[in-house]
Amino acid sequence: MPRIVILVPGKIHERVLTRLKESFDVIEADPSTLDAETAGKIRGVAVSGTFNAGAIDKLPNVELISSFGVGYDGIDAKHAAAKGVIVTNTPDVLNDEVADTTIGLLLNTIRELPRAENWLRAGNWKRGQNYPLSRFSLKGRHVGIYGLGRIGQEIAKRLEPFKVRISYHTRTRHPDSPYGYYPSLKDLAGAVDTLISIVPKTPQTHKTINAEILSALGPDGVFINVGRGWTVDEDALAQALRSGTISAAGLDVYYDEPDVPASLLDLPNAVLLPHLASGSVPTRNAMADLVVDNLVDWFGKGRALTPVPETPAKG
Ligand code: NDP
């Protein structure tokens, strides 16, 4: 019996390809380059990055698009839903890694640890100097979490032993949460001195971290972004960091990756990471396995393991 054909439209984790080839025939190609006969054979897609409406329309018999990563803003899930195509993502298996990275980024930003290391490597310590005391401490801070979903909740749990006060903003209140709820982002930013953004890229979150929010955060303010760069007005952020409207920022994600604006690169009070929050070998392997397992379970048992909310969870 011929094997089911899966399309891999671009670069993807090597483990996805290796495991897919154990169970399926795999075509690695841009969908726009496929002839109609080949396109008609494709029943599943494994993708890391974007898969738009045009790509979906090119595949008349596609049943499931398995996307690498929990954020699936690159996939046109609404269009997929309209055509009865399931979209899956890789939630939960990366929560711990992303939350751990967030705490590391927060400490690095507040205590200026990367700058201190550069200072040591430049030979300043052995010349008899002492590294200047960091202006701030995590101790006594009030941390606001913008987005208390799967990852936001893990960040909050990790913050508890640091004895900081924790509050959050989401559209829906979590009635059983021990943390303070603010019904608007502006109220949260005004109440806290440390703001962590871990919301998805949606039309509603576009540039919501803007001059007004940064001004509300205030001169002792520290801003951390591990969600999406889309959420931040980067010009306003660079200006706020330059002028002292806020004190420091730690960023893992940017508006137009991998282009990090010079206005941020030039700032000494910004700690900048190259979108690596989930980037360890074990966590990326677990994400790769979930990409493949969604396809294996769909075609073997008729159920998708982790469908996104826009597409029906059949099976
Ligand atoms: P979830 O869907 O579990 O949580 C999202 C949270 O954001 C919810 O609490 C939701 O609450 C809140 N939210 C969504 N829209 C809004 C809004 N307009 N205003 C206020 N709050 C909002 O997602 P995860 O925690 O699993 O992941 C979050 C995002 O983190 C991903 O979408 C991805 O973009 C990013 N991410 C980044 C990584 C990195 O490498 N830096 C790695 C992994 C994820 P409510 O709906 O009630 O508003």
Automatic annotation (TrEMBL):
Gene3D superfamilies: NAD(P)-binding Rossmann-like Domain
Protein name: Putative oxidoreductase/dehydrogenase protein
Start and end residues of each D-isomer specific 2-hydroxyacid dehydrogenase NAD-binding domain: 103-277
GO MF annotation terms: glyoxylate reductase (NADPH) activity; hydroxypyruvate reductase [NAD(P)H] activity; NAD binding
SUPFAM superfamilies per UniProt: Formate/glycerate dehydrogenase catalytic domain-like, NAD(P)-binding Rossmann-fold domains
Family designation: Belongs to the D-isomer specific 2-hydroxyacid dehydrogenase family.
The D-isomer specific 2-hydroxyacid dehydrogenase catalytic domain, residue ranges: 8-308
Any one of the GO CC terms: cytosol
Any matching Pfam family: 2-Hacid_dh_C
Keyword list, A-Z: NAD, NADP, Oxidoreductase
Cross-referenced InterPro entries: D-isomer_2-hydroxyacid_DH, D-isomer_2_OHA_DH_cat_dom, D-isomer_DH_CS1, D-isomer_DH_NAD-bd, NAD(P)-bd_dom_sf
